[in-house]
């Protein structure tokens, strides 16, 4: 009974994603961003909900990971690498994403937006990204390179953003926690 219910829900979702990909991408990613930040705030032990931060990450997720990445993954990468879904092409798209898109656009915008919606100086977010760039990008690549090989080789085009939303739920928890964690104190030996 339950598997049949899940399969029916998936077919309905898939049909909507095929008919209105941008709307489904925006709504799916906004919801995912809000839920991921709620979990991150809980894991951080936050005594109360930071609604501005939650709304900010939700909107960033909806606009950027829903709409912008839909355009990048399904239009830009198809123009650059062709629409082919071979593993070789999927590796090229995935490595381009990890080496160019994520470090130059996605992560800096994410740190900036996250701070801006929290009422903090967004440029402090950019400075924090600069300090954490290597760690953030290595963490990102360890998740997204393998995930995107699947995205670009197996996943149907209309389900790429919902698939990445599923994977990125865990990534947004990591990103939100990193973006709002206190700076690491380095102590010199006595």
Task: Describe this structure as you would to a colleague.
This protein has helices at 2-19, 21-43, 51-81, 87-117, 122-153, 160-180. The N and C termini lie far apart (65 Å). It contains six helices and no strands. The chain is an all-alpha fold. α2 runs parallel beside α6, α3 (51-81) runs antiparallel to α4 and α4 runs antiparallel to α5.
What features would you highlight for this structure?
single chain, 190 residues, mainly alpha, 6 helices, 0% strand
Describe the SSE topology:
Elements: H1 2-19, H2 21-43, H3 51-81, H4 87-117, H5 122-153, H6 160-180
The chain-level mean pLDDT equals: 88
Order of helices and strands: HHHHHH
Low-confidence region ranges: 186-190
| Percentage beta strand | under 5%
**Terminal Cα span:** 65 Å
User: Which class of secondary structure composition applies to the elements?
Assistant: mainly alpha
Main sheet summary: none
Strand element count: 0
What is the structure about, briefly put?
The chain is built from six helices and no strands.
């Amino acid at each position: 009974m339950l598997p049949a219910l899940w399969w029916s829900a998936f077919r309905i979702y898939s049909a909507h994603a095929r008919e209105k990909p941008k709307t489904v991408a925006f709504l799916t990613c906004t919801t995912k961003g809000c839920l991921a930040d709620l979990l991150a705030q809980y894991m951080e032990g936050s005594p109360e909900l930071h609604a501005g931060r939650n709304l900010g990450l939700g909107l960033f997720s909806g606009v950027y990971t829903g709409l912008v990445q839909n355009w990048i993954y399904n239009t830009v990468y198809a123009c650059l690498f062709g629409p082919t879904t071979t593993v070789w092409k999927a590796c090229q798209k995935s490595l381009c994403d990890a080496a160019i898109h994520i470090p130059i656009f996605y992560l800096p915008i994410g740190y900036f937006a996250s701070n801006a919606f929290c009422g903090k100086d967004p440029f402090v977010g950019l400075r924090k990204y600069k300090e954490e760039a290597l760690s953030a990008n290595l963490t990102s690549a360890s998740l997204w390179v393998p995930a995107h090989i699947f995205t670009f080789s197996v996943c149907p085009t209309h389900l790429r953003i919902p698939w990445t939303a599923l994977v990125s739920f865990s990534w947004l928890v990591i990103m939100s926690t990193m973006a709002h964690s206190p700076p690491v104190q380095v102590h010199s030996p006595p």
